[in-house]
Target: Pyruvate formate-lyase activating enzyme
Amino acid sequence: MIFNIQRYSTHDGPGIRTVVFLKGCSLGCRWCQNPESRSRSRDLLFDARQCLDGCQICQQAAPEVIERALNGLMIHREKLTEDHLTALDNCCPTQALTVCGETKNVDEIMSTVLRDKPFYDRSGGGITLSGGEPFMNPEIALALLKQSHQQGIHTTVETCLHVPWKYIEPALPFVDLFLADLKHVDSEVFNAWTDGSAKRVLDNLKRLAAAGKTLIIRVPLIPGFNADHASITAITRFAADELHVSEIHFLPYHTLGMNKYTLLGQPYSAPDKPLDDPELLAFAQDIARQKGLTATLRG
Model:
């Protein structure tokens, strides 16, 4: 199950890349900018701004789950089934209702990836698996990475590493670069904001480092969670002293994904304002350089 294939990307690894976004994630990060990626099944998004008054196409397609109310459509998401999603897919003339997620096999995905091999060869680019968490789909992730390597294509995985190690290990020979999230090193804080286990992530990071894999650490800086001197220092020290990486990326928090929660009918519980703290960002870069790391700010 994927929710996008983005060609000509220049922000998800070296060179020009094709990014395959796989659905499914085992974390519940409050600030997630791709909430449509969390579920391993399809999602229904509704943008009331695009809905046409008087139109009844979606109601006719799925009357059990959609009804017209005084203030627009009422969607009974708890009743949604795969049959309803199939009926609603591409039925809306204005795309107010859209279904996120489609099933593709490895050959279908690779046919898209291979279209741009000349660009990869010229720029040092390749394929990037993203998500969600790519290793929540370990079989298809392994197959895509293996086929890409066989075609001489550079491979990158963007990962939170919150999966069993047995999901990751088979793919190691076929991954050239890991863009790995290191959100926090404190177990209680990590769990409170992500519903996950920091130990699982830290253990997997250590295993990747021990396996000699190329790692770039990415740190989303979230107000109230880790956007403070103590957290940044602890994260940076772990990256340098435990993982012995050479590069770290700091990603200041933004709210560009906030509207997606409305589209999905979900609450948004992260801060409602982006991180605006030049002094803190300067501190993060300085502490990383003191530890011998190349520090980059990513928008």
In short: The chain has two domains: 2-38+102-297, 43-99.
